[in-house]
Structure formats: structure tokens, C-alpha cells
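This section describes the prediction task in plain terms. A model, or a person checking by hand, is given the sequence of a single protein chain and must write out its three-dimensional structure as a string of C-alpha cells. No templates, partner chains or ligands are provided. The sample shown here is typical of the held-out split.
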Amino acid sequence: MPQCRWSENVTETAVESFVAPDLTISIEEKLLLAPLHVLTSVSGVCTNAINLLILTSLGIRSSVSVATVALSISDLCTSATEMLIVVSYIISYTCQSCPVDFRSIAYIPLGWIRYPGFFISSCITTFISIERCFSVVLPFKVKQIFSTKLTSIIIILTCCLFMGIVYQIFASITVLYESVSCKYFDQSDLNYMVLTFTYKNDSSETEWIIDITCAMFLSLLSQAILIFCTVWMTFTLRSSSKVRRLERKDHTNVAGTQCKGWLKGSALSEKERRLIKVTLCLALIITGCNVPRYMTLTLFYTIFITDMAAWANTSLILWGMGDFLISLSYSSNFCVYFLLNRKFKQRFRDLFLNSKLKKK
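The expected answer:
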């Protein structure tokens, strides 16, 4: 759901837009983002639960398997939190006179709990790309460099780093039980006591630190490393395949035979092509889905922050679309594994398809 920036520099008009949004934000939330977030959060939970089941059944024997399992756990937890946000959001609309402000629960505590998951998943994907790159560049040393123990330590430290930075915001959150008087969509006046979440003081500086360190610097750094390692790995594989192709050509000439299929086909082996496809797909998905969020952050701190009241609805729409794309990336990993990993596809069939056929 759209991320809320509850800072003291937001004017009263901007805060009221969360209680009585105009037609544009109402259509966007009810008809567009709400169904999309329901779909992506549920699919994210289901697909990552399947990923965990299949990956653990295949065995956790290498650094890549440790990283892919950690990625599935991170995506599962983030998708589950997203689903709780969606449920809270739906309750806030269906039960408008509820004594608990579920909208503030969705936007403040749950929203910040979910926030580190965006960056943790991105960093784990980057780590997978780095490991795959080293397996091509330094194939005889990769297991010594990236042991399962070292991989586990790096992933744990990454999680602690982002959660430690982001969860500073919880020092500014407080729970209040206050009287609310507002007009809802039917123009009726409602006065009741509500348990709500808000900030004790101005949290804009804390939010700025979190966004600059996590969302911009660390996240963009991991994206740059991800793209660099993917390009480097692809270039190295292509270069080595050309050497093998020339060697095979010389060998067939000496033997007096021809190998037309080899010369006409791709110089890369089937395993190498799958490796490139998997790494490229993961890199494109995580990068493409994060670009809208980087753009929204840039607009937020350059344009929106100058007049939060005027840009409140536009900000909500952009935050919502950015969160939707990132949530969509969590369920797309299953499609990449299923289409490009033979062992994953076979185990999925054994667990879910062949077992059903046997029961029949």
C-alpha cells in the first residue's frame, strides 16, 4: 500500500486527505491499488512458501542454495507483512467507526516493519549475482571464497544492518487513544475514540537519514554491483566460449571432419545459457521494480517536500505504484526458477503434480 510520510511539516490539509481523499485518490486506492496489492501479496506468500519447500527439499549444500533460501524467506516475510497491511487497509474502509485506527497501523508500524525487506532482498540478489560471477571468473576458488558459513554470516549481517538503520524510526512512534471527528464519504459526522499510531515528534530528519542511507546509497550501490557483476559474468562466458569454439574447430579440421551443428549453433553450452538467463532475469526484475521507487524518492525530496499538502495525493499514488512493483518482484522469482531451473521444475512436478496423479 502507499507509504505514508507522517512528519510534522505535513500540513493539516495533507493529513485530512487520508481521512477524506478526493475522487482521484479514492479511485486509485479502491479500484486499482487495493486489488493489485491483494493479488501480489497473496501470490508472494504462496510462491515463496513453495520456493522454500522445493529449495529445502533439494538440499542446502552450497552458498547459492543458502542465498536463494534466504531470499525466499525475506520475500515471504515481506509479502506476509504486505498482506497484513492490505487487510488493515480493507478493515479501515469497511469498518469506518472502528475504535482502532487500522489505517495508521497499516501505514506506520507495519509499513516500517516491511521497509527493510525491500533492501534485504535486493542485497541478497546482488550477492547471488556476485557468487555466480566468481564461479565463472574464478571457478576453482569460488567454493573457498564463498563458503556456506561465510554466506550465512554475510546475510545475517546484511539483515541486521538494514533493520538497525530502519528501526530507528520506532523511537518516534507512539500509541494514542484520542477523539476523532470527521466526515466520511456519505458526509455524515462521526465522533468517537480511536486507538491510533502517530509520531511523538518531528521524524522528518530520521526518515531522511533512513532514505538516504538505505533507499538511495546502500540500495543503489547494490544495484550497481548487481548490474556490473551480471555484465562481467556474461562477457566472460562469451569470451571463453569463443576460445572453446576455435579449439573445437581446429580439432575437427585436424580429424578431417566437420561439426556443423557446433559451428552453426551457439558457442555457449546449455548450462551456461541457463546461468546467464537466470542471473539476467533476477537482475532485470529487481532493478526494474526498484527504479520507480528511486524516482519517487527523488521527487519527494526535491518537489513534494516543498508543499506536502499540494502533492499529498500524487505522492500517495506514486508510493503505491512503487510498492506494488516491488511486491510483484517477490512472486516473480518463482517463475524464473520454474522456467530456467530443471531441478526446481522437476521437484515441483514431483511434489505437486505427480502426487495428485498418484492419488487419482
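For orientation: Residues 1-22, 253-266 have pLDDT under 50 and may be disordered.
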